Amino acid sequence: MADTRIARTQIHKEPQPLLSRSRPKFYVTALLSSRNISHIREVHAQVVVNGMLQNLTVANKLLYMYAQRRVLGDAYALFGGMGERDSVTWSVMVGGFVNVGDFTNGFATFRELIRSGVTPDIYTLPFVIRVCRDMKDLKMGRLVHDIVLKHGLLADNFACAALVDMYAKCKVVDDARQLFDKMQNRDLVTWTVMIGAFAECRNADESLVLFDWMIEEGVVPDKVAMVTIVNACAKLGAMHRARLVHYYICRNKFSLDVILGTAMIDMYAKCGCIDSAREIFDRMQVKNVITWSAMIAAYGYHGHGRKAFDIFHLMLNSGVSPNVITFVSLLYACSHSGLIEEGLRIFSLMWDEFAVRADIKHYTCMVDLLGRAGRLDEALELVESMAVEKDERLWGALLGACRIHGNIDLAEKAVNSLLELQPENAGHYVLLSNIYARAGRWKDVAKMRDLMSQRRLKKVPGLTWIEVDNKTYQFSTGDRTHPRSEKIYAMLESLGKKLELAGYVPDTNFVLHDVDEEVKLGMLYSHSEKLAIAFGLIATANGIPIRITKNLRVCGDCHTFTKFVSAITQRVIIVRDVNRFHHFREGTCSCGDYW
DNA sequence: TTAGGGTTAG
């Protein structure tokens, strides 16, 4: 055996002429049939021996083969020695660097191209735009857009789709849309990129509108387009659309591969339908770490911590290793289900047993977990002992815990840290004001309000959406714009009386202003989620769950209010807020009253 | 001879 290996090596060292020595086509054919890098090198040697490196077609193909196999050292050596280069040469070299993630050299090669006076072509530009996209370098992206315009390449779908994608990933969706609207012949990828752009920029309802428009235009979606629209439904939490998209997927016989299946698990979970998410999960033949993590996260949103752990153990038994996100999802599930000891245990096992190092996101989950349980000292100790740089989410978790437990001193500390990081965020001032208000410290409340007006900051209004008969309605706090407004307020008034008889005590501490109790009550009864629930009771039949989505965290009083509503009306109410789902049924909430 | 879009958390 050993002798045979030596003999083969010797053969490779002595290149033999291949095929016809003078015809480029034969070298290209030989390269195309190359199975490994040593064969490419062998053909390279033959090309040199037979003086064919001067042929640009052959040299470019060689360069492409090295770049495709990600052997950038050989590719760059060849590129450096090429006396003649054309646009293909440049494009392959730029693309070679970009595809291995070497953006610095990719961009440097592109600059060299511009300096050498070569006109960049439609093949090179998408690579360069991708660099701008992945580096989130909007300034550079706009410069490349100018180059596209300067060379009249706007008609090219590849360059345009790449630009739309770049704008979307840089979070300037209006620029993406403007360019999309200018395009004459949009192909499927362009549509998909634009649909994804809206979902990316939290404008998922626009994604759905665009998807319908795409179908009307006769563009047939493929699996990637379906994953994109599934993702948009997940972001929107639109259950009715989710069902329609699922129906479309079945009718058009898209197979449930690992990516589409995982996206659908996430979609159903975020639309509040955990059972459908689990059904998809059970039907999937192939599951990867993302699938398992998505299912763990799904149970986490819904407050089913134990089930999240069941999935985690099944995952380990199936031989899949957890990653950073699996643990974020698991810790998140613990903090939203009150599984304190389990959370502490898994946090300590992460590194020891699974070699996953805790980062800021895991620490934030732990602060949330300990903080909600009232173990604020331990939460603070963890914050002070951690070696990872602290961010606003971490302090936000600590502040949230202070609000629940009325710890003013610690809240002030958290807010000071938050204001250092985000001085313009009005939400931090409002949270601290609420904490002061709850303690009756009205002078401090006034101070916070003055500070906000001095700094010209305004709180983001609380908004709630409700889907009734396939139509979405939006409510803001104190809203009277709805055509059935009078009925809604009348319903709230009569409901309030019944709820108070049943034992509900409105918690006016959740009203910020230092005003009369009666006024406070009025303000409390006009919170956006209460208006949406009242509308839901009027507009939907018994047996149909009321599903609402809030753009901020559900306030503590609304949480109690909803529990009472579900008890006296026997209606199931599902509330999705920024952090999780709350399933209210017969006076209880799936978050285990762990508020 | 060279080019594009998709899954989990925060």
How does this model look, in words?
- This protein has 31 helices and 6 strands.
- It has helices at residues 2-13, 24-32, 37-49, 56-68, 72-81, 87-99, 103-115, 124-134, 138-150, 157-169, 173-182, 188-200, 204-216, 223-236, 239-251, 258-270, 274-283, 289-301, 305-317, 324-335, 340-354, 360-372, 376-385, 392-405, 408-421, 426-438, 442-454, 485-501, 517-524, 528-539, 556-569; strands spanning 463-468, 471-476, 546-550, 573-576, 581-585, 588-589.
- It has a 6-stranded mixed β-sheet, covered by helices on one side.
- Among the domains are: 1-84; 463-589, no CATH class.
- With 595 residues, the protein is mainly alpha-helical.
- The structure holds one DNA strand of 10 nucleotides.
Supply the key terms.
TPR-like_helical_dom_sf; mainly alpha; 65% helix; 595 residues; six-stranded mixed beta sheet; E_motif; DNA-binding; zinc ion binding; disordered N terminus; RNA binding; PPR_rpt
Helix-strand blueprint:
Blueprint (H helix, E strand, L loop, with lengths): L1 H12 L10 H9 L4 H13 L6 H13 L3 H10 L5 H13 L3 H13 L8 H11 L3 H13 L6 H13 L3 H10 L5 H13 L3 H13 L6 H14 L2 H13 L6 H13 L3 H10 L5 H13 L3 H13 L6 H12 L4 H15 L5 H13 L3 H10 L6 H14 L2 H14 L4 H13 L3 H13 L8 E6 L2 E6 L8 H17 L15 H8 L3 H12 L6 E5 L5 H14 L3 E4 L4 E5 L2 E2 L6
This protein binds one DNA strand of 10 nucleotides through α4, α6, α8, α10 and α12.
